[in-house]
Amino acid sequence: MRKYEIMYIIRPNLEQEARAALIGELNTILTDRGAENLTVNEWGTRDLAYEIADFKKGYYVVVGVMASPEATAEMDRVMKIKEDVLRHIIISREEK
Fold it and tell me: How many CB atoms lie within 10 A of CB 44?
């Protein structure tokens, strides 16, 4: 297991219930694959540095987790498919 930090930006016009369901669904992908120490930090709506799909704002979520590379690969695959996720990045926080 490795330590990862995952940040993703959700469309700002998504309703609160739908946003909570999406965040829960993405977290379930990690926990179903054995991830531990899951911490979710919702930064809320912030300005984007540049427009993405005609949006000037986005809802930021940062997740810290201990997970396997397979779990993060599945998370990456699903976030690429989801239309409500504007951008995402997965960073390994392991010391070398």
Answer: 10
